[in-house]
């Protein structure tokens, strides 16, 4: 799914993480509706964008291997590369036992801590009952806050009775408007370019943005601690 416009400038990439296990999947369907609406809004603003999808059900074996043995298979590595290069993320999961799916959580558990810093993220969940409607805000939002992502104010939830309701389309449009605005603004890149060295980073992370100070062996050589270790003083407030 892609959109091409005549407007010059860098193409943006939205990455969909879908934890749906059926084919077709209502979880994937909800994520795709949000992705398409976001692309439509970006096109109206003259922004070229495309969508890449990570289907977690195809990565079950490699996620398990990474969880148990720390081994990252080629398809999982490709998924991590997509996230590292994403301008925004749509994260969608089915709800099991009043929480996010184990597959979805296991995937998040193996991500580098700095992979999603300041990336705009839209949250979506599906379930068989409206009793689970608070899962996106009660369960998913804290997970992405821990990873220091920028979650959109509006999250999405769909139970079976919601699909034919006009209200779901309105929520999708509202969430897409918020996500498109964050993508167009480039706020994520602005944050990481200016403050990358002030975050704790994971060894070997592929998430360091272009222009940000490079860490050697996972260590930020421009930090106050490393300056002190080298015999210098800490940076003055506001000078970093």
Structural summary, described in words:
- This protein is an alpha/beta fold and 240 residues long.
- The chain has a single domain (2-188), classed as Rossmann fold.
- It has 8 helices and 8 strands; from the N terminus they run ββαβααββαβαββααα.
- The chain has helices at residues 26-44, 60-69, 74-84, 102-109, 135-146, 166-185, 187-195, 224-229; strands at 2-3, 12-18, 49-55, 88-96, 99-100, 120-126, 150-151, 156-158.
- The longest helix is centred in the C-terminal third of the chain and has 20 residues, at 166-185.
CATH hierarchy, class = Alpha Beta
Task: Give the % helix.
Answer: 25-40%
Helix and strand composition category: alpha/beta
Total helix count? 8
Question: Which sheet architecture does the biggest sheet show?
Answer: 8 strands, mixed
Q: Low-confidence spans: pLDDT under 50, at least 5 residues?
A: 1-8, 215-219, 223-229, 233-240
CATH architecture: 3-Layer(aba) Sandwich
How much of the sequence lies in strands comes to: 15-25%
CATH superfamily: Flavodoxin domain
Please indicate the count of domains. Answer: 1
Total strands: 8
SSE run: EEHEHHEEHEHEEHHH
Gap between N and C termini, in Å?
40 Å
Q: Looking at CATH, which topology would you report?
A: Rossmann fold
Shape: globular
Rounded mean pLDDT is 86
Rg, rounded, reads: 19 Å
Keywords:
8 strands, 240 residues, Rossmann fold, eight-stranded mixed sheet, disordered C terminus, alpha/beta
């Amino acid at each position: 799914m892609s959109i091409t416009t005549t407007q010059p400038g860098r193409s943006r990439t939205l990455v969909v993480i879908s934890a749906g296990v059926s084919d077709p999947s209502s979880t994937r369907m909800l994520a795709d509706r949000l992705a398409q609406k976001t692309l439509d809004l970006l096109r109206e603003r003259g922004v070229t964008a495309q969508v890449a999808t990570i289907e977690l059900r195809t990565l079950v074996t490699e996620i398990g291997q990474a969880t148990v043995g720390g081994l990252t298979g080629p398809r999982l590595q490709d998924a991590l590369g997509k996230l590292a290069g994403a301008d925004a993320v749509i994260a969608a999961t089915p709800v099991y036992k009043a929480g996010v799916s184990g597959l979805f959580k296991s995937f998040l558990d193996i991500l580098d801590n700095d992979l999603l810093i300041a990336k705009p993220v839209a949250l979506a969940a599906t379930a068989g009952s409206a009793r689970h409607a608070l899962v996106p805000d009660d369960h998913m939002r804290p997970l992405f806050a821990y990873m220091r992502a920028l979650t959109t104010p509006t999250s999405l939830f769909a139970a079976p009775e919601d699909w034919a309701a006009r209200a779901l389309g309105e929520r999708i449009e509202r969430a897409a408007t918020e996500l498109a605005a964050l993508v167009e603004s480039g706020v994520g890149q602005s944050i990481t370019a200016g403050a990358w060295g002030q975050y704790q980073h994971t060894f070997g992370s592929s998430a360091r943005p272009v222009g940000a100070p490079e860490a050697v062996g996972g260590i930020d050589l421009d930090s106050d601690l490393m300056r002190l270790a080298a015999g210098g003083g800490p940076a003055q407030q506001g000078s970093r």
